[in-house]
User: Which sequence fits this backbone?
């Protein structure tokens, strides 16, 4: 147990961890029953369910061994793929939150980002990782179990680029798609001084101005609020035609010929 001061206390005795005696290559940590506590899926076809008090309850899984993990049927509960088999989680009434990250300044999948959620019940943290355990790549979605919590006070996404997106008063039991830099509370806008579009809002054409000497861009991508690509179009003479876009709010992303990525909000009226 982490004492929070750079020291640790050995609480192995009575924790249930010694009951996991099988040899194997890996242990992975996920909240399989969505109670808000991280469980351990280890060797011997066994999950150690976290009781929330630094003790664990052993649950044999029959012939299910470790494999890639993710919410395969979009019910908010983590499933297991093993060889040619898919094992769906028998869901319960516990609540959950799932996030998909779409990087603009950072890498496309948001790998390396840290997601923090908090509420009256406390705080949970997840990191977006490209691998899980010894040999498997699980879903890149970020998953939180919430137990009986009915409200999430704040969701904070800290991107590798330094941008921070914040969502307040988020309801549980939903899949939240987050585009880097998409919230009003976003900080660290790398595009602020080097990338300008005008007019904004616009209904037909917008102009682009890149401050870097000699910088140009030839393609623009517009993402809608769900994270889907709404329009990919050419930039001609520093102008973008947005007449085919539906009215709404978008994230405009471009990459200059110098390799710099820029993004900003755009409103089609």
Assistant:
């Amino acid at each position: 147990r982490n004492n929070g001061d750079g020291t640790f206390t050995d609480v192995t005795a009575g924790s249930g961890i010694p009951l996991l005696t099988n040899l194997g290559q890996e242990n992975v940590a996920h909240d399989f029953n969505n109670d808000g506590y991280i469980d351990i899926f280890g060797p011997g076809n066994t999950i150690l369910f976290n009781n929330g008090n630094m003790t664990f309850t052993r649950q044999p899984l029959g012939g299910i061994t470790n494999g890639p993990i993710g919410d395969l049927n979009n019910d908010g509960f983590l499933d297991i793929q093993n060889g040619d088999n898919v094992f769906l989680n028998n869901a319960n009434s516990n609540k959950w939150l799932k996030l998909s990250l779409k990087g603009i300044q950072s890498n496309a999948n948001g790998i390396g980002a840290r997601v923090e959620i908090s509420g009256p019940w406390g705080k949970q943290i997840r990191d977006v990782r490209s691998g899980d355990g010894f040999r498997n790549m699980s879903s890149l979605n970020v998953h939180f179990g919430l137990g009986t919590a009915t409200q999430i006070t704040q969701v904070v996404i800290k991107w590798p680029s330094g941008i921070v997106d914040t969502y307040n008063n988020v309801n549980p039991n939903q899949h939240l798609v987050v585009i880097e830099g998409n919230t009003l509370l976003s900080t660290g806008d790398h595009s602020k001084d080097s990338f300008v579009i005008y007019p904004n809002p616009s209904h037909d054409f917008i102009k682009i101005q890149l401050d870097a000497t000699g910088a140009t861009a030839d393609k623009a991508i517009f993402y809608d609020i769900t994270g889907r690509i709404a329009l990919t179009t050419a930039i001609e003479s520093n102008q973008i035609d947005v007449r085919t876009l539906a009215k709404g709010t978008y994230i405009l992303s471009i990459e200059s010929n110098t390799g710099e990525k820029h993004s900003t909000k755009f409103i089609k009226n």
Q: What stands out?
A: The chain has a mean pLDDT of 87. The longest strand covers residues 95-102. The chain has no helices and 21 strands. The radius of gyration is 22 Å.
